[in-house]
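Hi,

I'm pasting everything inline rather than attaching a file, because the server keeps stripping attachments. The sequence lines come first, and each chain or strand is labelled.
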Amino acid sequence: MSTHTLEEILHPQSIAVAGASSSTATQGYGFTYHLLEYGFKGKIYPVNPRYQEVLGLKTYPSIRDIPGSVDYVISAVPASAVLNMLEDCSQKGVKCVHLFTGRFTETGRRESAELEQEILKQARKSGIRLIGPNCMGVYYPKEGISFGYDLPKESGSVGLASQSGGGAAIFVELAALRGIRFSKVISYGNALDFNECDYLNYFSQDPETKIILMYVEGVRDGERFFDALRQAAATKPVIVLKGGRGESGTRATASHTASLAGSMKIWETMVTQAGAIPARSQDEMMDLAVSFYFLPPIPGPRVGIVGGGGGPSVLAADECEEAGLDVIPLPADIREEVRSRGVPIWDWLGNPADTSIMGDSGFTSNDMLLLMARNQNFDLLIANIHEVALSVKEGTTLRRREEVKEYIKMKKESSKPLMIVISDKSLGTKGYSHWRWKLTAEVRTSFMKANIPFYPTHERAANSARTLIDYYQRRK
Amino acid sequence: MSTHTLEEILHPQSIAVAGASSSTATQGYGFTYHLLEYGFKGKIYPVNPRYQEVLGLKTYPSIRDIPGSVDYVISAVPASAVLNMLEDCSQKGVKCVHLFTGRFTETGRRESAELEQEILKQARKSGIRLIGPNCMGVYYPKEGISFGYDLPKESGSVGLASQSGGGAAIFVELAALRGIRFSKVISYGNALDFNECDYLNYFSQDPETKIILMYVEGVRDGERFFDALRQAAATKPVIVLKGGRGESGTRATASHTASLAGSMKIWETMVTQAGAIPARSQDEMMDLAVSFYFLPPIPGPRVGIVGGGGGPSVLAADECEEAGLDVIPLPADIREEVRSRGVPIWDWLGNPADTSIMGDSGFTSNDMLLLMARNQNFDLLIANIHEVALSVKEGTTLRRREEVKEYIKMKKESSKPLMIVISDKSLGTKGYSHWRWKLTAEVRTSFMKANIPFYPTHERAANSARTLIDYYQRRK
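And the predicted assembly:
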């Protein structure tokens, strides 16, 4: 178990929600609701002088009025009420306050910045640690703590520290749809007390966390951050997405979490030198997280590609090659094997293996994938589940399910990294109930259950693969 | 009306499907089914000696046995049967044969390549034009001709010539989900008779086509192609996706449509010099098609961004700037206007306008979008419909619907280009029936109906915008 200060803080016996509310439009409602909904095992104390009861829980006028001890406080009170609340927290021996409360330095106003500093001073005096301010705080499904309505209740092994709360919620939601589950997520906003280095240190020591993700807008102390990054990256994969890379993003960063953003090139060089992986977008961070989460180390760039028709195969090869993978010609021994089985298209088949020519040849994508899996010339395999409106429901459904079953079986038999490509569909209302879409959703679910990662395009799969190959080569 | 040879060919009075079949697994079934399903108005003649009837239609042993005249033939017979069938076609005065039939040059076998050449020779002798071989042929919803099961029945103004049939079907299906409808799509495979230049010429003359898309793996005659491209690009936007860009893609291209791919850089330079737009992926081609389809010319790069929370706003600014847009600071007159309305966060708001700070300020994303729409400092606007699990169903639904209504109203009032960002979700079975997803689908449908384009990320919206800006600037 970790001995980090945050370890105790993240396992509270009791949580008070200051500014709890019955109005569903507020986060004072949300934070209370989540504790109930996600099954927080300790005591829950809503605090608000205007309510007797919130969500069926007895509600206290102030933190001071709570009968038992309080370990952790979630603050949804206005900025002007924080100092008083901290007084109460101090009297109750509270260990940590998560300040959802915002409108401090990020407003650009002097008096708000001064108030923020006073809050820090008072917290330090009372020995109270702060998460935030101006953040969503903690999502720790195992402990029953959450900041979102539709985030998974199951735990996983990805830890995320994010300077953005909304961004973290979107990320968790979308990543969950690709099979990722989280150990814990901490949205930390203005990083007044605990900052990016503390969260990084914590995650690097946390046995529940195998992969660390960070969304950072700015760092307080570059030297300390890169030291922390180096240490963390020595223990597990660390992927860092930087917000505020350009001029306008830097401006937006200042009004979001009052951070100072720096030059992007220097940043990426330092992140890479620290042994961590820089990401350029949420999508890229998600692809990388999915890859580290589900794949074994990828030993090299030689890729086998199956499952697309003619044009999609050509484009898949292009995209893989442009990402730095090596789409090798079909090895001679595979060709001989196919010939020996009497497959009439043995001399025509290649890598990528074009499904549209297989037709009635008695040879399928899955046969090819199996041959590639057993062949030492390939370092990884990419299989395309292509959605084509060229066949009828029954046949498509049957073939697709068979294909998925076979791919999953192959994955169990072979240790070779396997990535699946299934395109995203920007569905409207009409398409929503279409069997083709339902079938795609079913296929995705099957792959998730089988711990096989999928990607919306070959480009994204290949870019992720290349990054992982480089990562593992550097670590050798 | 166009005087191009293809114009008459694409308006047949009668179509025979050679190799029609009752087996749903075959395209001989599919092509017949589509003519019925999409409402082809002329005569439909299934041809197959093994059937009396296909899909309720009287079926003839050979084309020669058809009582009336036959304008157009779709061939799903084996390669070895094509020469005989062409004899029959010649006797019936058939004008054009679409050879779905494949297994010619693309197999890499000499005898197949020789057969292909014999077919061409015989067709020329009989005055029969050929589409294909090795292709899906024509999707022309207005005429009731289709090659896919779930392609839209409504017509639009995008024309696509694609060397890949499966690729074309996927593209039409996915593009339809983003609101695009097609005038006609021609999948042309090995381009034995009609080739990329003919289709390009035809689309450039076709009054039903306002935007031309091409998927090309190789061109027979570079000089003629770039001449045709120059002519076409002078009349309407032409977007060209090249398959077979690298070494492996080139190899795949040879076994797909037996084309010779060339050096990518030279290709892109020539496409741009011809006044057309090179695309690097299906996604990019789709984003560009959506942009040309729905947007007025974008006069410059100064973008206003609304609708995201803190982190997403920062990343949106970064991505827009990296794509070459100019995320200008909020103009002083807008700030003054907001101040004069007594909005307490007037000095904090910026561009992007962070929704997460608006809260109870009485000021919304929509208010900001309206101010930006009326302000001459902005050339285009991007609004984010962000999916955050931070609020309850009722509130989210209400706010989202209100927002969409207001955005649509704004679009009617202002001529300023408006792009929407809504993230794609790789849904599994469980998420499929979730209200959040249904709401997103509803939102997309509303925007499609209002002719407002949407994109899955700011990066993709911004890249498209930049390409359009350059396109319109070059044309000045």
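The mean pLDDT of chain A is 93.

If the labels don't parse on your end, tell me and I'll reformat.
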